[in-house]
Amino acid sequence: MRKVPRMRRDRSDLAQGVMEESELENLWKVALARGAEAAEAYWLREDLTLVDIKEGRVEVLSRGQQAGVGLRVFRDRRMGFSFRSHDQQWSPSDLAESSLAAALQSHPDPYLDLPSAPFLDYPRVEAYDPALARLDLADRLDFARRMERSARAIDPRITKVRHCLYQDSCFSVMISNSRGLKARGEGTKCSASLLCVAEEEGWSETGWDLQCSSFFSDLEAERIGEQAAEQAVSMLRAKPLPTGRVDAIFSPAAASEFLETLAPALMAEAVQKGKSLFAGRRGERVASSVLTLVDDGLLPHGYRSFPFDDEGWPCQRSILMEAGVLQDYLYDLHAAAKEGRESTGNARRGGYQYPPQIAATNFFILPGKRDQQALVEEMGRGALVLSLMGMHTADPVSGDFSVGAEGIWIEGGGRHRPFRGVIMAGNIREWLQAVEEVGSDLRFFGPSGSPSLLIRGIQVAGS
Questions:
Q1: For every residue of 261-307, which 3-state class applies, written as one string?
Q2: Band of the pLDDT at 274, cuts 50, 70, 90?
Q3: Cα distance between residue 190 and residue 125, in whole Å
Q4: Is 130 exposed, middle or buried (0-12, 13-18, 19+ CB in 10 A)?
Q5: For position 120, what pLDDT does the model report?
Q6: For the domain 130-234, what is the CATH code?
Q7: How many CA atoms lie within 13 Å of 384's alpha carbon, on the beta-carbon side?
Q8: Strands 382-389 and 244-250
């Protein structure tokens, strides 16, 4: 009978979200002693802060920590997973038995495995901001108040600020598996957003803006407030457009919403199951020649940048579409094993409570050379789309969609009037092929980013 390793654990350390590498390693050793053929332990500690300001006063202030461990075990080509939080009473044997019991209930899969060798040198990436880790609560509150003040200062028609939100996270990750892999890293991320209301003679409109980064110094409090307020004021007295076909420029915010529908279709798992509009099209032209689409887990200051993914595989920059030609998909180890290739470093977890699955990192369209105003002048007449509603309802296989849109109608190369209550219908494939020009104004909204996109001949249903 194999001897079960013992682990000395200081409950006071665990209660504070602290775990040593040797303790993490011991978790998979216990699992092997209990009958697992391979095992992986994943540790996450995350310190979270959230501030919401209204009328200069603190509406919400939340500071907390989540920390815990997830254990994946493999036996007879089956995978089992279980987790425990730092504030629970548990033992390594309890965690191992729970994971092994889960494995018995799962289906065999010949492609399940772990990284088979340690990586001695992970890529260097700017993903940890020591200034953010040291940030005082007073600095966070001041940032949120500056956002609100800047929004109200733009125009007297700004009557309400519904939320003025700042949040950040400082986290550390450790991964250890029975194949010899050890990975450890720290990261930070922060975001700020503001939603305000403009009112005039019975008309009411909202405006919103968001910035996010892994570095606090990248966020601009005044700019967020100004952008949100300017959008709200510009949309006052918005009315529908006539039904027909129009040329359109999609702002970075609207284009990013469109881009988010592409990410699931580029996951290798969806492609392998035939549930993607890009299945079987590698090497083919699937978009306009002006489009190059990238997933970059090493992007400096990127919201999801990190040296390694949540299986411990090195992150990388992947070119998915180049000049409109489909080059690759996003892979974790499981999907990669099905094709006898390497992972692209795109295994992600929603927390220690979840096993990894394929997800994009920093997913964006490379910018062009001309700014949005140059694209507006080029278009001459058409719609500047500021927001899309319901893009998530697009069919991932056929690519068909029908979404709400609002923005500014352009006449003579200048802003003419706001519009809303408009439905834009089409197909993702057709829109990708119809992109005529890409702007230089790349912006990120969370992990997805895009510059402005000029697309001709879009079907609109309005008045």
A1: HHHHHCEHHHHHCCCCCCCCCCCCECCCCCCCEEEECCCCCCCCCCC
A2: very high
A3: 17
A4: exposed
A5: 67
A6: 3.30.2290.10
A7: 28
A8: parallel
Instruction: Summarize pLDDT for 339-350 with one digit per residue, the tens.
Output: 999 999 999 999
User: What was the pLDDT predicted at 19?
Assistant: 87
pLDDT at 16: 53
Domain ranges for the chain: 130-234, 238-463
Rg, C-alpha atoms of the chain: 24
Give the torsion through C-alpha atoms of 239, 244, 246, 251, to 10 deg: 50
pLDDT of residue 86: 87
| pLDDT tens-digit readout, 376-427 | 999 999 999 999 988 777 787 888 888 999 999 999 988 889 999 999 988 8
pLDDT of residue 1 exceeding 60: no
The pLDDT confidence band at residue 15, using thresholds 50, 70 and 90, is very low
Sheet holding 317-322, edge to edge: 325-326, 317-322, 293-296, 363-365, 448-450, 443-445
Interval 75-80 mean pLDDT: 96
The dihedral over CA atoms of 317, 286, 337, 176, expressed in degrees to the nearest 10, equals 30
